[in-house]
Amino acid sequence: MTRQILVTSALPYANGPIHLGHLVEYIQTDVFARFQRLRGHRVAYLCADDTHGTAIMIRAQKEGRTPEQLIADMAVQHQRDFAAFGMSFDHYGSTNSPANLAIATGIWQQLRQRQLVVERSVERLYDPVQKTFLADRFVVGTCPRCGAADQYGDSCEKCGSTYPATELKNPRSVHSGAAPELRPSTQLFVRLEPLQPFLREWTQASGALQGEVANYLAGHFLDKPLQDWDVSRPAPYFGFEIPDAKGQYWYVWFDAPIGYIAATKEWCDRTGQSLDGWWKNPQCEVVHFLGKDITYFHTLFWPALLHVGGYQLPRRVQIHGFLLVNGEKMSKSKGTFVTAQQYLDAGLDPDCLRYYYASKLSSKIDDLDFRTDEFVGKVNSDLVGRVVNLASRSARFVEATGLATRYPDDGGLFAHAAGMRDAIAAAYEACDYREAVRLAMTLADAANEYVEQKAPWTMKKDPARAAELQDVCTVVLNLFHQIVVYLQPVLPSLAAKAAKLLGSSCDRWDLVERPLVGTKVAPFEHMMARVEPAKVAAMFVPATAVAEAPAPAAKAPAAPATGPAAAGAADAVDTLAKEPLAGEITIDDFQKVDLRIAKVVAAEAVPDAKKLLRLTLSLGSGPTRNVFAGIKGAYEPEQLVGRLVVMVANLAPRKMKFGLSEGMVVAAGTDGEVFLLSPDQGAKPGQRLH
After folding, report:
1. Given 3.30.70.120, 3.30.930.10, 3.40.50.620, 3.40.190.10, which CATH number is that of 4-106+251-344?
2. What does each C-alpha distance from 297 to 257, 301, 351 come to in angstroms?
3. What digits encode the pLDDT tens for the residues 615-649?
4. What are the counts of helices (DSSP H) followed by strands (DSSP E) for the chain?
5. Cα 366 to Cα 505: distance, rounded to the nearest angstrom
6. Is there a contact between 31 and 45 (Cβ–Cβ < 8 Å)?
7. Contact 440, 421 (CB under 8 A)
8. Residue 194 has pLDDT above 50, yes or no
9. What pTM does this model have?
């Protein structure tokens, strides 16, 4: 029977880049969605950027742009990274959308009608530096229950306790580091206690949750009356203003999960489908994937909103653990915080990470440890040595003849592999990818043993054994095809290459049941490279996009010359003598260089670099550019923030020691002197020099 399945990943926050920790979840979700499509089911995989909140507002202010410009920039970056790692979203939206506002308003009206909204004044933590009230996740301090340091203002990762942010000991603002103050604030709350019987029944009896999650909710929340949920924030705040409460904005956790529905609405509008056919259809299975740190938002608050709004409850909520790197939490200070772009810049294959994660992911909430030596060994052994090896050791021998017109006797290998389809499917269905991969690799081992026994490279030397060689290669390539079909949800790029080689797709589960015969084999092309330890090490080097200025670091400028204009002319002659004019170019040559006005929104010294400052440049819209400039001896970083400079905006990206360069600031000077060029008053970032 064909199933209808709506799949979501937790929405990535638009305040930062996609990193390896994020990719645990998105790879896990994408494997599930691809598997269900492979089985012939009707699947929609929806996601969006989570765009609202204080953090977005403050970052935009610091960078001299609007929140809308910031989230537009991050949307491009996020979708670029997701595409590179093969995420098969049917639609990717934004919570800052008309659809999200409309659906959030509808749910809010239902809450009002059921008298589940109350208003009262409360004491909340306020950042005196940023002049804004602080969301719970933007306060850190000591857990009031177990004393663990550096815990969030809503819950402790160490002991699992939840508490009001006002109970946190030694609190400090994530934004400014300042000690927050208690100030009165008028807030709107959603009453959850009237919904507690429904939530208890759904969490404990629906089967949607993993057992440990259901037990956690029963022991930490549902064993006592549920507290009211604070769902509003006063201005200033970047988000949706509440229609019937002027000056109040929905807290980001109110409208963020509604983004799942809004993204579906946008997709349905684009494809001519009905939103109710997905979110109000009892036959549709809604499946959420998310990390354990946001468990209670998605298993208490979110189901409450769906229930009140008349939408389908999740049929399944699959929660995963955190990513560790060599046994420790990812850490910027330790250099183990790795972005998706750093992984790609190191020259590593996204399919390798997909496979490594899948080989370690089970249906449980265990943390996943990225161990660098294990990553190298597993990818090289399993993918290159056991899977791709099957094609590379056989395909070349039948490029001229193609596969045999009948499937040869293989001692039952093909039938055995076909018989594994139900066990592998059950593992994928349970999100036990570790087991699915293990079973597929047992088939690879059997196929490689067959290759070793038959030794086709030896047969190739004897023309009399040509038919036997064709039979052996037909068996090996069919076994390879079966394995790739089984691993297609994990390795979409490899599956595409295998399909090109064999002239047969790898995108239907039933393909493992029928052998390929009489088909052509394309010339074998490289499918996957071995992982080099040096490349793995390279991804742990911070990959800030940077570029050098053309001038060397400055010495102290010489005293300005005095005297008549003739002295200035003499200086010019001396300067030209030291650095003669370059060869003549045409106007067409000059127009190839795109010089733009840019604003310095941040500047800092580069550790371990004697001459370089790192500049973050804004062109007024679009993504910022990070540029290395050799001006450390001439300028202090704080002198540059807010200044307009001239940059070469279309310089080809260049890989450097400190990362990928994306531009160059224009400076003048000789003998170590450096003078940044600045435009006249009235120029604006983004304007081109003509």
Report:
1. 3.40.50.620
2. 9, 5, 32
3. 888 888 777 888 888 888 778 787 788 889 999 98
4. 25, 26
5. 35
6. no
7. no
8. yes
9. 0.75
